[in-house]
Design brief:
CATH superfamily of the largest domain in chain A: Medium-chain alcohol dehydrogenases, catalytic domain
CATH topology of the largest domain in chain A: Quinone Oxidoreductase, Chain A, domain 1
Largest sheet of chain A: 7 strands, mixed
Structural class of chain A: alpha/beta
Oligomer: homodimer
Helix content of chain A: 25-40%
Distance between the termini of chain A: 14 Å
């Protein structure tokens, strides 16, 4: 099969690997229908973080084989893979944190037994712990909702996690820092949770427009102190009830803290790669600003959000504004790196 | 009147000042019955933070005069003063965050109009915004519950804030980092909220004993990684459901994060004076550890906790293990600084 590889910062190639097979009795093999490039893929792509090799952790596809102990997932089903695989029955999975599964792990790397778990940006993936990991969607690979369903693999679940962490709900005003795919999905998540007012911080008119289409009620076309001041002005000096931190830099955190009202909460999902100095606590102490978030438990949110995507009331599909065949995935990375694309959908040439 | 003054690091004196009077129509003047020394008073005392002048922000006393616009509080009442004064009707007070009151402030400093608000470690205090600030306790100054009631001014409310932030409740396991007066009150707060298991980290046997008396079910006599490892061992490798961070140093935060289970919450109330490098976010990202806390809204908690103190079901009184007359308050500071005393109660010589 063909699959994407990061050879060095900035250098993505598509290479040939053996087709994966069921190795463990709890495995499934999935033929990828659609995959995508994540904002976090750009960190190693840019050389900001280490990491080489097989890429991609967001995909959906059709099950082509299952191991002997797989009882829920069956060949032929279209399944969505959350961005981490997990057993579904350990203490952390049961508590709703499959992201901390005692036996689980990620894609594009070897599992604890040294057996490759393929990346999502390829034609096939061996998915460990298939019953605990995969969620069935009763649609065909040609369904127009495929992009929206694919978003449940990571970006929509992550935006939803930010909105939950920010305490989005009826009557609440939520500010969203970050107008990337996650920030836009945080807008959707906040709307899904019933937030009354959703303020997107965006200096990119096209992204701001999409945010408004997703439910943002106000656009602040500014950054830094100017942006947090604008949020305070919009809220009669009070600040937002909650803020979604969807970037992960020292500057975005400072903006989030300054935009938040006393007693408010910051839902944080931006991988903190650039918060090199740590989070300054003193500005959060007197105003009692809390933080909740981290790696989104996409697996937990999948069954919760799936019905809304299927009935059309939640449609994150438009975050994908560029589709490339797998063989051209390098162009997709470049487009996201240059901010020419919000999020890139990748279609394996040999897909169903 | 006589009142305590920090002249320089390590140098506390008691000096004579004019008796305070009602200056604004919303003021009350309170004759202090009992005051105390706060762990946070030790920061300027040790020269770790700036700050000189009149000291003390925890006191209760008898109202001796009220301004023309004070309608709730009356002369002769015994009142508890939370450690910040607040109006009770601005947007933040109404939302439950009097700590961010738009007109409020602290003790031992001038108000926004340049008029002195006395420190609590003295014979009398002019309390601004008396109706919003003071809470009446229907007891006499000789009541045996005075120490317990005084604790509601700050330390018990702060411990309760930590326990709430850590998510204490039925079935929960809560670890408490810090065995000072606040940590001990966090134990009480966790028990008050129905926590099933309360683990105190303490290397001081006398404080550990008091923690057990307050409801701790387990004592970990260790610090740092050894302590967080012990909490994990006590919880079958899972970690505590919530952790009360009652110290505020880089080391105590690292212990709190390491002791917390995935998806758990750290209730933080330790003034972050020594978290100089900021809070490292990366260790909290994958396990989804949240933080909630800051300056405790003691005013909000006062009516909630007062009945339990009055009926004896909540008795933080034993955190006071040394009582000194106001004239000897320097000895009280020294005892707390040397950790010979957990918390020092101060009685003005001319008190009721």
């Amino acid at each position: 099969m063909r699959a994407a590889v990061l050879d060095a910062p900035g250098a993505i190639s598509v290479q040939t690997f053996p087709d994966p097979t069921v190795v463990k009795p709890t495995d499934a093999v999935v033929a990828v229908v659609a995959a995508c490039v994540c904002g976090s893929d750009l960190w190693p792509y840019r050389g900001v973080s280490a990491g080489r090799g097989r890429m991609g952790h967001e995909f959906l596809g059709v099950v082509v084989d299952v191991g002997a102990e797989v009882t829920e997932i069956r060949t032929g089903q279209l399944v969505i893979a959350p961005f981490l695989w997990s057993c579904g029955h350990c203490v952390h999975c049961r508590a709703g944190w499959p992201t901390s599964c005692l036996v689980g792990g990620g894609y594009g790397a070897e599992d604890r037994d040294g057996i490759m778990v393929d990346g999502g940006q390829g034609e096939f993936v061996r998915v460990p712990q298939a019953d605990g990991t995969l969620v069935v969607a009763d649609v065909t690979p040609q369904d127009s909702r495929i992009p929206a369903l694919l978003s449940l693999s990571d970006v929509m679940g992550t935006g939803y996690h930010a909105a939950l962490g920010a305490g989005a709900g009826p009557g609440r005003t939520i500010a969203v820092v970050g107008d990337g795919a996650v920030g836009l999905c945080a807008v959707l998540g906040a709307r899904h949770l019933g937030a009354e007012r959703i303020v997107i911080l965006s200096t990119h008119p096209d992204r701001a427009d999409l945010a408004v289409r997703f439910g943002a009620t106000d656009v602040v076309a500014a950054r830094g102190d100017e942006a947090s001041d604008a949020v305070r002005e919009l809220t009669e000096g009070v600040g937002a009830d909650g803020v979604c931190e969807c970037v992960g830099t020292q500057g975005s955190w400072a903006t989030a803290v300054a935009a938040c009202r006393p007693g408010g909460s910051i839902g944080w999902v931006g991988v903190p790669h650039e918060v090199t100095d740590g989070l300054p606590l003193f500005p959060m102490f007197r105003p009692n600003i809390g933080i909740r978030g981290g790696t989104a438990p996409a697996r937990r949110y999948l069954p919760e959000l799936l019905p809304s995507v299927l009935d059309g009331s939640l449609d994150p599909g438009p975050v994908f504004d560029l589709t490339v065949p797998l063989e051209d995935i390098a162009a997709g990375y470049a487009a996201m790196d240059d901010r020419r694309a919000i999020k890139v959908l990748v279609v394996p040439s040999g897909s169903v």
